[in-house]
Structure formats: C-alpha cells, structure tokens
C-alpha cells in the first residue's frame, strides 16, 4: 500500500510524526508539497518568505533523495493536487500535520471531504507544528487562556511526546509527476541579508545555539546590539525545526537561559491557542477598545522607511528591511511607536511586518501587534513605550543605532539616541530628520483617544 504525506508548515525529516506514521504503515510513501495558489492570492506569498521557502523545499528534496526518495512538488489548488497525486499513486491514506489557523482548518475540512469521496483516509497528526496543541490545556471557565502566565503554568506541566529521529529510507513510487522545487533565482525585492532556509541550516543553527547562545539568553535577550537571541523564528515558522524537539533539547541544556527560552516557545503556542478559537483576531480587535485611530499617511511612510527622527525606531525599521527580521525589542518599540505614539491602527503595521518578515506568521504577528496596541492579551493595555528610555536601556552605548543609521555613525555613545540635544553646529551637520512627533503629545493623544 501507498501513503501520501502532505508537507505544509513542517518542512523537515526529523521529528515528523506524519512521515513516520506513513512509513510505518506503508510500503511506499509520496512526500508532497503544493505551492498553493490560495496562499499567493491572499497576499501572503511575499519575496522574503518565498525565498526562504524555496531553500526549505530544496533541502527537503535533497534530504529525501539521500534516503532514496524525493519530494513531489505541485502548484495549484492544494486539495485538487493531493487528490490527483493520491489517485496517481493509488494511495489509500494521506497524512497531514494539524494546524489551528483558519485557512488550514478550511483546507483540512475540504481535504477530508474530497478524500472521503475518493475512498482515501485522512490522518491528521498533532504536536507537529506546536509543542502543546491548541485546546490541549484550557481553563475551567473558558475555551482558551486569554492571559499568558496561567497558560504557561499549565503548558509547563504537560508531558511532551518523545522527539522522533529522521527516517533512514523513504521509498517513493515511480511515475508521479513533479515540478522542480522552486529556487531563489528570479525572485526580486529580497532583503539583502536574508537568512538561509532549510532543515540542514536550521539544525546547524540550533546546535550552535545550544552550544553557545542559550546559556546567556536570560540576561542578553533584550540587548539590541548584542543580537543574542536564537534567530530560530523562521525555522519554527516553516517547521524546519520541531517545537517538541526544541523544548526537549533546551530543557536538557538546562539553566536559567534555557528556561527563559522555553518560555518564549510557550508564547508561540499561546498565540496559536488564542487564534484557534478566535480566528477573527487575525484582523479584528481581540478586545475592542473603540479606538479612533488616526490616518496619517506621511507619518506611516516615515515609520516604514525608518526616518521618524527617533534613532532607535529608525534603526529597527531599517533592520527589518535589510534582513527581513527584527529583534524582538525592536518589534515591541516600533509597534508601540506606531499604535500609541502615532496612534495608527495596528493592522497597518502588522501588514508592513508581514510584507517583510521572513518569520511572518499570522498567529505571532497579529497577536503580538494586538498585544502591543492594547487590543490583545496584554494585561496593561494602556502602557506606552518611550523610545528614548527604551533605547537607553536596551542599547546603552548606541551601537545598534549606529549600525543601522549611518547618518548617525559619528555620534559617539548614548548621545546618539537624542540627536536633537546635540550642540547646534553638530546637529546641523547631520543629514538626519527632526522627530516627526513630540512623545508627550503622542502619548496624551493616545490616552485621550482611548478614553473617548
Ligand atoms: P528568541 O528570542 O530566540 O525566541 C525563540 C522562539 O520563541 C522564537 O523563534 C519564536 O518562535 C518564539 N517567540 C519568541 N518571542 C515570542 C513572542 N513574543 N510571541 C510568540 N513567539 C515568540 N514572531 C514570529 O515568529 N513571527 C512574527 O510574525 C512575529 N511578529 C511579531 C510582531 C510584533 C509586533 C512583536 C512584538 C513580536 C513578533 N514576533 C513574531 C515575536 C518575536 O518578536 C519573534 O518571534 C522573535 O523576535 C524571533 O527572534 P528569535 O527567533 O531570535 O527569538
């Protein structure tokens, strides 16, 4: 008998329960990926993520070839393509990872109906894209946790399944048509320093992180210039690394750094469990605050381009464009600047992030934006981050700012965070804008708007 394994956000061979189940139960397996036209139509297929995805698919294909198999790549409607491949291969089962996103839920439902009509069984496997599945831990009085800390308490007590090794051999039937896996060549508009995708790269990064990064994570994760976070987020988004395996390996590493890191992985699961039961939170306020957001196209443009006149905000926005990634502290303070200081709708910022982030992810991006905007799960929804205070705390020497804002490269030390305070001639020599907004004014406008 033959099984099809549909890869989606789980582009790896290690710790892959659907692939393992298919191999255990079948003589031959068809590992397949569909370049889904609905994802492109929804505006989600942006150059940075397409490039990372191409790396992932090529790496998955070569990993399968080393084991005697190959990846079957198709384009079009995902349900139609899976049904076609199942028919060509005369498969009796299709295996798929569970995914709580609204689109993935619809995809699963459509797939189930179409396969049932064709007499093919669909197996949906849990704990592939999250460490703890959405819905596994719920409070007594509600269908999900709306506050992270109690969620984390329950999450931490869950027993995780063991991580699986990669298969030795994968036998794929002959004669199943496939496209070449896509490549980066021909993609334009990529960030110049975009990370490389693929399981091989992800595993190398993870090993290096466990050896020499995780230990200092608790102390250094907020240090903007130190860049001391794992940068594993795109690998988690595309599933080249398994969250279950990551939690196990981090816990084995042990220590306060590992504990703090595991806590961040739980945030990822937390956001997914919110979105699983409140799918509308991808675009609608999770907690309505009746904000009267401003439309301020020129200020939004200055924010997008990194010329707000607040050096740390501009540095982070330029990092985003240059790398397709931004440090978490940068994400927090740039999002606060847009939604509170400029009082612009969080959806405007979330869209810009999704256009560029290589780890851009509906659950993590939209719910973190809502968290910062105070329409989400933050228990202090009206706090406003002051970018100057933040800069002095998290970039005390100004190195991060000088790295990303070359116009300020000659301003030494923390003075770089407040160029408006430089002596007249020094200030005049800088080709750098004046602040587009007064911080106190922005803060009051936000608090007034929120009350009214
Ligand atoms: P590390 O600090 O090494 O953390 C390890 C992993 O934990 C991350 O890879 C990520 O999977 C998870 N994680 C860490 N922080 C969070 C968090 N706050 N929420 C959920 N998961 C987290 N993360 C995304 O993966 N995709 C997004 O689109 C995204 N958009 C964001 C938008 C805003 C406005 C904010 C404030 C945060 C956003 N984050 C997003 C969360 C966080 O900033 C990134 O996950 C993190 O910066 C990635 O870098 P890292 O892998 O080095 O993280």
UniProtKB/TrEMBL annotation:
Record carries keyword Cell cycle: no
PROSITE patterns from the UniProt entry: DNA_PHOTOLYASES_1_1 (PS00394), DNA_PHOTOLYASES_1_2 (PS00691), PHR_CRY_ALPHA_BETA (PS51645)
Entry keywords, A to Z: Chromophore, FAD, Flavoprotein
Flavoprotein keyword on record: yes
Span list, region Disordered: 171-201
TM stretches of this protein: none
InterPro entries reported in the protein's UniProt record: Crypto/Photolyase_FAD-like_sf (IPR036134), Crypto/Photolyase_N_sf (IPR036155), Cryptochr/Photolyase_FAD-bd (IPR005101), Cryptochrome/DNA_photolyase_1 (IPR002081), DNA_photolyase_1_CS_C (IPR018394), DNA_photolyase_N (IPR006050), Rossmann-like_a/b/a_fold (IPR014729)
A UniProt-annotated Pfam family: FAD_binding_7
Cofactor(s) required, per the database record: FAD
Domain Photolyase/cryptochrome alpha/beta intervals: 1-130
Record family assignment: Belongs to the DNA photolyase family.
Protein name listed in UniProt: DNA photolyase family protein
Source species of the chain: Streptomyces akebiae
């Amino acid at each position: 008998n033959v099984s099809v394994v549909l890869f989606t956000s789980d582009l790896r061979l290690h710790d892959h329960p659907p692939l393992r189940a298919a191999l255990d139960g079948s003589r031959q397996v068809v590992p397949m990926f569909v370049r889904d036209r609905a994802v492109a139509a929804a505006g989600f297929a942006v150059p940075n993520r397409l490039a990372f995805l191409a790396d992932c698919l090529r790496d998955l294909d070569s990993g399968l070839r080393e084991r005697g198999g190959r990846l079957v790549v198709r384009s079009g409607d995902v349900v139609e393509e899976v049904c076609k491949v199942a028919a060509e291969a005369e498969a009796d089962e299709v295996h798929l990872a569970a995914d709580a996103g609204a689109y993935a839920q619809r995809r699963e439902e459509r797939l189930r109906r179409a396969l049932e009509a064709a007499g093919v069984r669909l197996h949906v496997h849990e704990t592939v894209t999250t460490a703890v599945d959405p819905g596994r831990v719920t409070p007594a009085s509600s269908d999900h946790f709306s506050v992270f800390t109690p969620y984390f308490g329950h999450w931490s007590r869950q027993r995780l399944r063991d991580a699986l090794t990669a298969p030795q051999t994968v036998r794929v039937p002959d004669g199943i048509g496939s496209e070449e896996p896509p490549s980066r060549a021909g993609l334009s508009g990529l960030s110049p320093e975009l990370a490389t995708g693929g399981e091989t790269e992800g595993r190398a990064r993870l090993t290096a992180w466990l050896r020499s990064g995780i230990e200092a994570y608790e102390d250094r994760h907020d240090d903007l210039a130190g860049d001391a976070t794992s940068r594993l987020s795109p690998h988690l988004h595309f599933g080249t690394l398994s969250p279950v395996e990551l939690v196990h390996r981090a816990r084995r590493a042990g220590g306060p750094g590992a504990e703090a890191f595991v806590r961040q992985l739980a945030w990822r699961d937390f956001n997914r469990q919110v979105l699983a039961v409140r799918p509308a939170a991808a675009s609608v306020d999770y907690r309505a605050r009746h904000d009267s957001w401003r439309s301020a196209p020129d200020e939004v443009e200055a924010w997008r381009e990194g010329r707000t006149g607040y050096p740390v905000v501009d540095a982070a926005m330029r990092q985003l464009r240059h790398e397709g990634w931004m440090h978490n502290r940068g994400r927090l303070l740039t999002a606060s600047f847009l939604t509170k200081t400029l009082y612009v709708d969080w959806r405007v910022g979330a869209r810009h992030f999704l256009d560029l982030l290589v780890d851009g992810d509906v659950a993590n991006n939209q719910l973190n934006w809502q968290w910062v905007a105070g329409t989400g799960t933050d228990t202090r929804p009206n706090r406003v981050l002051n970018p100057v205070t933040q800069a002095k705390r998290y970039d005390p020497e100004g190195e991060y700012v000088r790295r990303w804002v070359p116009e300020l490269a000659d301003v030494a030390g923390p003075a770089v965070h407040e160029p408006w305070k430089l002596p007249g001639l020094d200030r005049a020599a800088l080709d750098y804008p004046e602040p587009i907004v007064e911080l106190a004014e922005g803060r009051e406008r936000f608090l007034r708007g929120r009350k009214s």
